[in-house]
Amino acid sequence: MLDELDRELEWRGLHFVRYADDCNVYVRSERAGQRVMARLKSFLTCGLKLKVNESKSAVARPHTRKFLGFTFLSGVQVKRRIAPKALTRFKERIREMTQRASTR
After folding, report:
1. Is the pLDDT of residue 56 over 70?
2. What angle do CA 39, 18, 37 make, to 5 degrees?
3. If you placed Cys at 62, which of 12, 72, 98, 101 could pair as Cys (CB 3.0 to 4.6 Å)?
4. Cβ–Cβ contacts within 10 Å for residue 5, how many?
5. Are 87 and 71 in contact (CB under 8 A)?
6. CA dist 86 to 2, 6, 44, 70, Å?
7. Nearest Cα to 28, choosing from 66, 61, 77?
8. Is 82 helix (H, G, I), strand (E, B) or coil?
9. Which helix (H) or strand (E) holds 6?
């Protein structure tokens, strides 16, 4: 169903990443982000008859948002990294899996 969304974003020439129902759209300015967000909400609600979760939707810098457990580091060269919360969960899981059994 969201193939239509992909086509719409490609037709508009926007840079985006989508996995299942999660989607990030990348634009140059906050003003452009607000404009794109309004148009996408309209397209999804009116065109596709879908509900947009307002609490998860935002216009923000990429380094302040998390997507699929990853975030971006801003600087001279943009880099991706594992989001802090995802990294903590991963380390806890590894500790649980590698704990030594108590010998009695």
Report:
1. yes
2. 20
3. 72
4. 19
5. no
6. 27, 27, 29, 8
7. 61
8. strand
9. helix 3-11
